[in-house]
Amino acid sequence: MDTLYNTYVIAASLMILKAVGMSWLTVVRMMKVKAGFRSPEDLKKTPLNPEPSPDQLDKNEYVDRIRRIQMNDLENLPYFLVAGFLFIMTDPSLLMAQILLYGYVVSRFMHFAAYFTAQTHDVRATFWTIGSLILIFMTCWALLTALGVI
Questions:
Q1: pLDDT at 1 over 80
Q2: Cα(12)–Cα(137) distance, rounded to whole angstroms?
Q3: Interior CA angle at 86 toward 138 and 100, to 5°?
Q4: How many domains does the chain have?
Q5: Which of its termini does the chain have fewer beta carbons within 10 Å around, N or C?
Q6: pTM to 2 decimals?
Q7: Tens of pLDDT, residues 5-23
Q8: DSSP-assigned letters across all residues of 76-116
Q9: What is the distance between the alpha carbons of residues 15 and 140, in angstroms, rounded to a whole number?
Q10: Alpha carbon of residue 32 to chain centroid
């Protein structure tokens, strides 16, 4: 049986796994192109970098695209984790919680797809806006419930 708590745990877990997945995808891309490294010590010869080159510290769009996606997640997902938890603490209807929490998850995966495939800013912004409006709604709902307005 699905509950508010289960709905939140599923949505939050998916978002955490997505964010962590961006770290892994960054590493995979760095290893694939042997570029996009950030720190001078990354140029030391190691088993994973047997032929270091100063060029490895240059910006690399293939790697940096994933870093930008991850940065966007890191700017947005903490708010979702807190707002979603506060929202379910207000005991909203299960259907409303599912629509909002899963709607946020879908908006973030769509934002990822748009960013990953280099869609225009307008496309990315549309998916970001949907998620942001969901966060605003859940936060206002929690606040108004705490104030006794709802």
A1: no
A2: 17
A3: 35
A4: 1
A5: N
A6: 0.93
A7: 999 999 999 999 999 999 9
A8: HHHHHHHHHHHHHHT---HHHHHHHHHHHHHHHHHHHHHHH
A9: 21
A10: 23
- Torsion from C-alpha of 104, 70, 78, 95, nearest 10 degrees: 10
User: Using CA of residue 7, residue 9, residue 14, residue 15, what is the dihedral sign?
Assistant: positive
User: CATH number for the domain including 31?
Assistant: 1.20.120.550
Assigned token pair, 10: 């599923």
Report the distance separating Cα 7 and Cα 76, nearest Å: 19
In angstroms, the CA 56 to CA 43 distance is 7
15 vs 25: CA distance, rounded Å: 15
The helix/strand/coil state of 38 is coil
Q: What is the mean pLDDT of residues 33-43?
A: 93
pLDDT digits (tens, 9 = 90+) for 52-89: 999 999 999 999 999 999 999 999 999 999 999 999 99
